[in-house]
Write a structure and sequence with these properties.
With about 210 residues, the protein is mainly α. Helix content is about 60%, strand content about 5%. It has a three-stranded antiparallel sheet with strand order 1-2-3, with no helix packed on it. The model is unreliable at about 205-209 (pLDDT under 50).
């Protein structure tokens, strides 16, 4: 979560969800509706944050305002693990071990495992090795298309970065040139002041009052 800007992170999350939808991958969808308005609002907030972007750190660092928190120290500041403005760690923790732990357990046991067990009992005999699934042509085509899109976006971002880098170098050279011109102008003015002072002072010397 601390490697992307908020805008880039939202776009990346959307791309992840697009891939999940394109591949028909079933992910856990926590129940949102609740009799308690506070719980309902919290559940909606958790669902809206999926997929979760996490900062992982066990180090304790000091924030500019003097707090000691788990996070990562950077030259520009501190990325806090338990700060909802920085990452989704608290939402994921709440989902896994607080608000939806029992639902996760029951869903895994009653839906996923039961379905897997039923399928295996229908298609396999006891002791028979699990058969390998045949390659899905549609899946391969979609995978190749996503790989090409990803490669194109990476190249596009690399080109944008190079252009940005070249602009920074050009701006740096311009500023250095301007600074050098200003420095030469200051030296020239100093020389003119010294020459005027030498002419106006007695015996060619400059006396301060």
């Amino acid at each position: 979560a601390d490697t992307l800007s908020p805008t880039a992170l939202r776009q990346f999350k959307k791309r992840v969800m697009d891939v999940i939808d394109a591949q028909s991958i079933r992910v856990y969808q926590p129940p949102v509706d609740s009799e308690d308005e506070t719980s309902c609002s919290r559940n909606k907030e958790i669902v809206s944050a999926m997929p979760f972007a996490i900062i992982g750190s066990t180090q304790e660092v000091k924030t500019p305002d003097g707090r000691h928190v788990k996070g990562r120290q950077y030259p520009w500041g501190v990325a806090e693990v338990e700060n909802d403005q920085h990452c989704d760690f608290k939402k994921l923790r709440s989902l896994l071990i607080r608000t939806h732990m029992l639902d996760l357990i029951s869903t895994t046991e009653e839906v996923h495992y039961d379905k897997y067990r039923t399928t295996q009992m229908k298609t396999r005999k006891f002791g028979e090795p699990k058969p390998r699934k045949a390659d899905n042509k549609k899946f391969r085509e979609e995978e190749e298309m996503l790989r090409k899109r990803f490669t194109e976006k990476v190249k596009l971002e690399e080109n944008r970065f190079r252009q940005w880098e070249q602009k920074l170098i050009a701006e740096r050279d311009r500023l250095n040139k301007d600074l050098e011109q200003e420095h030469n102008l200051v030296k020239q003015l100093e020389s003119e002041i010294e020459a005027i002072s030498s002419v106006n002072s007695p015996n060619g010397k400059f006396f301060r009052k």
